[in-house]
Structure formats: structure tokens, C-alpha cells
Amino acid sequence: MKSHFKSSFNIFTLFALLASLLGSAVFATPAYAAGIVVNSNADTIADDGTCTLREAITNANGDSQLYTSAGECALGAGTDTITFEVNYTITLDGSQLPAVTSTIVINGNGSANTIIQASTCNPITLPGGCTPASYRVFEVSDTGI
């Protein structure tokens, strides 16, 4: 009787173990894209409690986090989406923004609400060619330069 109970217990334990392994493989949590929220219109890279567009692109490119202080940009991971907390006009300091070297989606709040201005004659560089599916630029103007 004990051997029958022990055998049934072993079969039940094996079945439970296999079910849990199979369940974890079937219901694995997918990796989600990182969301990085720009909360400043400054054009800096500094540990100052804000997340600038320049810092957001750097974090997204490197799947890393430059600074971990409260208010700084979130960790980049995989395909990143950069959004803007409120409507901003960001005036670049004269240097180009970091080249985009990974898959990044930058969603502004509309062409009248999220504006990136060059303070000097800075070209916009699109690395890797200009296939229509790769880039969508809604408005680029040289007003005021």
C-alpha cells in the first residue's frame, strides 16, 4: 500500500512539475519597449533631475540609463518610444543631436506643439539611407534662421 501511494505521489509530482514548466513556456511575459518621457526643453546632458531629448536619444541608443536620479530619463531597452510630457520648443545648443543608432519612435504632441529648433545652421542627418518606410518627418522649416 505504501509503494502504491509513493508511486502515485511521484507521478503526481512529475505531472505537476511538467505542467508548471510547460505553462511557463507558453505564458512567458513578452519584453515590452521602453517608454522614455522628455520632461525638459533644455538641450543638455546632466544629472539634474530632468530628461532632455538629447539624454533620451542617448539612453535609447545604448539600452542604458545615463543617470538614475528622480526625474531623469528612463532606462532604454529594445525598441524605445520617446514622448514629450508637455508641449515644448527645444532650441538646440549648436551641436547635432546624437545619431539614432537603434530602433526609436519619437512621438511629439503635434507639429505646432513639439518644435525642435536649431540655434545655428544645423543639418538634420538621417543615417542609413532614406527609404520611405524608415523615416516620417512631418514638418521641417528654416524659419528664423
Description of the molecule:
This protein is α/β, with parallel strands linked by helices and 145 residues long. It has a domain at 35-118. It is built from 2 helices and 5 strands. Strand 1, helix 2 (53-62) and strand 2 (80-84) form a beta-alpha-beta unit.
Strand residue percentage: 15-25%
Shape: elongated
Q: Estimate the mean pLDDT confidence.
A: 77
Unreliable sequence segments: none
- How many β-strand runs? 5
Question: Helical proportion?
Answer: 10-25%
SSE pattern: HEHEEEE
Radius of gyration from CA coordinates:
24 Å
Please tally the helical runs, counting DSSP H or I stretches of 4 or more residues: 2
Derived structural class:
alpha/beta
Terminal Cα separation, in Å? 92 Å
Assembly annotation: single chain
Q: What's the story with the biggest beta sheet?
A: 3 strands, parallel
How are the strands of the biggest sheet laid out side by side? 1-2-4
Write the layout of secondary structure elements.
Layout: H1 2-26, E1 35-38, H2 53-62, E2 80-84, E3 88-92, E4 104-107, E5 114-118
Parallel strand pairs: 1-2, 2-4, 3-5
Descriptors:
24% helix; 145 residues; 3-stranded parallel β-sheet
Question: TL;DR of this structure?
Answer:
The chain is an alpha/beta fold. The chain has helices at residues 2-26, 53-62; strands at residues 35-38, 80-84, 88-92, 104-107, 114-118. The longest helix has 25 residues, at 2-26.
